[in-house]
Amino acid sequence: MIFRYKFGDPTETGAVVDFEKVQECTSGKPQYFTLESNCLSFKRTLPQGVAVYGLGESTRGINKRGWHYDSFCSDDPIHTEDKQSLYGAHNFIVIDEEKPFGVFVDIPGKVSFDICAESYDTLEITAEDGNFYFYEITGESIRDIVRQFRKMIGKSYTPPLWAFGYQQCRWSYPDEASVRAVAKGYKDAEIPIDSIYLDIDYMERFKDFTVDGEKFPDLAALAAELKEEGIHLVPIIDAGVKIEDGYDVYEDGVEKGYFCKDENGENYVTAVWPGKTLFPDFLNSEARHWFGMKYKRLTDMGIDGFWNDMNEPAIFYSEKGLDRAWEYVENQKGKPLDVNNFFDLRDAFVKLSNSTEDYKAMYHDMDGKKVRHYDVHNLYGYNMTKSAAEALDEIRPNKRTLLFSRASYIGMHRFGGIWMGDNQSWWSHILLNLKMLPSLNMCGFLYTGADLGGFGGNCTRDLLMRWLALGIFSPLMRNHAALGTRAQECYNFEKPEEFREIIKLRYRLIPYLYSEFNKANDSYDMMFRPLAFDYHEDKIACSVEDQLMLGDEAMIAPVYEQNAIGRNVYLPEDMLLVMFDTAESFTLTRLEKGHHFIEVPLNQVPIFVKKNRLLPLCRPSENTEKLSLDKIELFGWVDGRAEYELYTDDGISKQNKGERIIKFTAENGRVYSDCDDTELSDGGVCFD
Ligand code: MIG
């Protein structure tokens, strides 16, 4: 059951699309919370041990209890425990009481979730302004509540199949030659790859939808040349539009009035990479369509994937803010500096970036209604991505485009995926990557992944190896690194053949991952789940925060500590351990429910398969285009009978995806399928 309470006069965010099961409650008094008189703050006492799940992209644990989170899309590249906000605003939680229930706060502005941080047993949700919808969802289990929520917010974005291939990014590959060198590097090392990214330097002076003609004299030809090798080029699009005379996107947008304004209706001048910029008013439907259609300039060059960046929006400074800072500094000149004004002086310019003052001074025209940016802040990146997705639907009808964003809000999951932003080359960020996967799945984000190897800082070989051993399971598998950091392409490390094997294993897994992705999407379910969701009666399983269930077949437990020879793994039931030492050679071990220390050498990847389930792996290939289902190897521990239904489709069309299910069965010591074109091998199956 879903109950909705309306407070004030909420802005429609578009997060919810299916109202069939939603019951409007006019009482204004939620069942599970006590409401403070100002109607902004909801409180509930949580007995010790009650876990809270959700909040999508955020710091800390899978169980969110014990910290205060703020939903406010933030450009913050240091994802440490003390942080309260990251790039996304995902206001959905499930409280695991005896009768579990879910809460979704549909508010375009800031809302905070103090989950037993201030007071050890109090959950307090506080909205900053009084206009929002508050949803309470009841159900039989956590998973059931998540499914109801997901159905209410609608199906998730589905990328093309090639977006499940291995992807290489860097800030930046600044010219044609460096892009070709990456393609060659992978080819020479015989490491499979499906795409190479273009970061901001491909543009002419960082202007959206332009290409620097000197560094990339013929992008269309380059895209075509790479596509011959099965590699897609994926350019970045930034939110800010450069102010430059003669730049048509700027001039046209100004003329049509499509940029964010100040209080008096003048364009709000900010600065980002291109220098002075204006922000398109993505909350205006005409502006949205106008900006989205610009992607055609790149699709006309054969581009079929994009990533949207800086759309929290990230602001280096605003013209007005800078004026104020100078004024302050000039005023201080010559004055004695004491402990108070010294720090103010020192920070005068630092504070200019991503400042609340700017968010409060910027305005949108929401189809006739003037709205302060700050109050709808969390909808900005969402609507940038919606702008692209809706236009791409027009530009490339019935074809899927790879599209993901940095900032997001629930609802955006229907239009694109997200990546987890600027993480660091830290061991702890492998674990953070793992923990975000199920939380994001709860909130509708299925196409997601972190910058493998870490964005900031220098990555070591062992870090990348271990991180890839997790990354091979996430739908978005992209290696990305920041400007000035050590080269992070796999072939730039010693023994590239060991990277080759791990990535080849990814390609063997793609049919399964694609199948589980689509099944999860179709049934509003989670592809990655905490053990607590599946083994709720098992206290130990409920406390596991470094393993995940993947689909209904597998469990993953990556090594995330440097110099570790292996790790402790908890098995909530009997499972088959498949230890891959290369993509195609492995050992099988039957393991009983309970605690195990599993040795995992650096180049190996463990996958745990539940008893009487089957995991189908195809042959490795150099890219997804060459991936075939002709030969499937099954893995599993069969005591009786096991089945798997593999979802397949053409991997590219939108409507009428041409679905086909191939069924595999293992029983009585043999395996078979209902598809004559697939040759099966049972090398990975143990029969009892
Ligand atoms: O302020 O385009 O998160 O992936 O490489 C940095 C340069 C801007 C932030 C993105 C990152 C990208 C970088 N961008």
Which structural class do you get from the secondary structure elements? alpha/beta
What percentage of amino acids are in beta strands? Answer: 25-35%
- What is the share of helical residues? 10-25%
CATH class of the domain at 2-153: Mainly Beta
Mean pLDDT: 97
As laid out across the biggest beta sheet, the strand order is 26-25-23-19-15-14-13-28-27
Largest sheet: 9 strands, parallel
What fold name goes in the CATH topology slot of the domain at 2-153?
Immunoglobulin-like
CATH superfamily of the domain at 2-153: glycosyl hydrolase (family 31)
| Multimer state | single chain
Please give the number of β-strands: 42
Summarize the structure.
Helices cover 24% and strands 27% of the residues.
List the helices and strands and how they pair.
Layout: E1 2-7, E2 22-25, E3 34-35, E4 41-45, E5 52-54, E6 67-71, E7 88-89, E8 92-95, E9 101-106, E10 111-115, E11 122-127, E12 132-138, H1 142-153, E13 166-168, H2 176-188, E14 195-198, H3 219-228, E15 232-238, E16 241-242, H4 248-256, E17 270-272, E18 275-278, H5 285-293, H6 296-299, E19 305-309, E20 317-318, H7 319-332, H8 339-347, H9 356-361, E21 363-366, E22 369-372, H10 380-395, E23 402-405, E24 408-409, E25 417-419, H11 428-442, E26 448-449, E27 451-452, H12 461-471, E28 477-479, H13 496-522, E29 528-529, H14 531-534, H15 539-542, E30 548-550, E31 554-556, E32 566-571, E33 575-580, E34 586-591, E35 594-599, E36 605-610, E37 615-618, E38 631-638, E39 641-648, E40 660-667, E41 670-673, E42 679-687
Parallel strand pairs: 1-2, 7-24, 13-14, 13-28, 14-15, 15-19, 19-23, 23-25, 25-26, 27-28, 38-42
Antiparallel strand pairs: 1-12, 3-4, 4-11, 5-8, 6-10, 8-9, 9-12, 10-11, 16-18, 17-18, 17-20, 21-22, 29-30, 30-31, 31-36, 32-35, 33-34, 33-36, 37-38, 39-40, 40-41
